[in-house]
């Protein structure tokens, strides 16, 4: 025993080890609920012993060992659990570990099995997000409920229903077979990115964004040969690097063009750029890699004027070819305004107006282009349309300020 106990230490251990421990115990015990209960029991024991003994050198291993023993003790007391006890006993024996042919996937890590279980397409997307944060991230149900602005009881029911679905539908606890992996990885990445965007959209939810990045690092560790995994991690890092400059002293939001780039997190930028370079060397572009590359161009420029807008337009062209969407087309139009002028960009924006009429940023972009063309009355009307389509206080403050200046 070496490390002294503190609340910070306990929090770090729970965050870093919880998902690994629950995932390992799920394989050993064959039951997610039993695994969670066993880990909670072990943490209770830790809180009793560690103040006197100190934190073990391998706290995760200690938790797993203690949790396994507690679970087996519980099963021995429960006649209904005899079959599970026999299975758990077999799982403890090294010669009975699942072999490569049985598992069928390229990576055999308990956490990776758990990620694919939590993100199985049979589960609704909100359930996938909730389970991933609970079982891999170690977040408590009240924390997840607060993050997604739903009542705690609603989130608890969502998690319980998802676990019941896994049990009833016999969703396998395994990495998909090689042939199925390409179809399953995007769903996993979508869950992690949804967690990140939820955290990044609100200046005060940096904890949720940090959890998504932690999951992204975990995926990159477990699936280092999947370029889209690296692309998603790079995208999140380069986006999160701008967080310190996104908010002014008065708490208002600062747009990318107006941000003080000296305030960007240099370490996150460097890590993100290195990952983008790794992706480029693989020459297997995907949507997350292309979005990361777009952010890399921004991150490499000392200011907005020096940005390689032609490169950003070209990357958006590739992104539209791989993952066409009106929002990608809108973002391309913003870049096109810097290379071919606002009139060329406005033509595209007008073509998107019907499909994106309810999207306030469509009207905000249109207002900017109209203003640059000297069509001030139309620009003010477009700003009014943008204001009518958002309730976000930060967005409304930005639009209102623009309206007053116009």
UniProtKB/TrEMBL annotation:
Keywords: Sigma factor, Transcription, Transcription regulation. The keyword Ligase does not apply. One of its GO terms (molecular function) is sigma factor activity. Coiled coil: none annotated. Residues 184-279 form the DUF6596 domain. The keyword Transmembrane helix does not apply. It comes from the Bacteria. Residues 83-93 have a biased composition (Basic and acidic residues). InterPro entries: DUF6596, RNA_pol_sigma70_r2, RNA_pol_sigma70_r4_t2, RNA_pol_sigma_r2, RNA_pol_sigma_r3/r4-like, TPR-like_helical_dom_sf, WH-like_DNA-bd_sf. It holds the Pfam family DUF6596. Residues 83-107 are annotated as: Disordered. Residues 15-78 form the RNA polymerase sigma-70 region domain. Residues 114-166 form the RNA polymerase sigma factor 70 region 4 type domain. One of its GO terms (biological process) is DNA-templated transcription initiation. Residues 94-103 have a biased composition (Acidic residues). Belongs to the sigma-70 factor family. ECF subfamily. This is RNA polymerase ECF family sigma subunit.
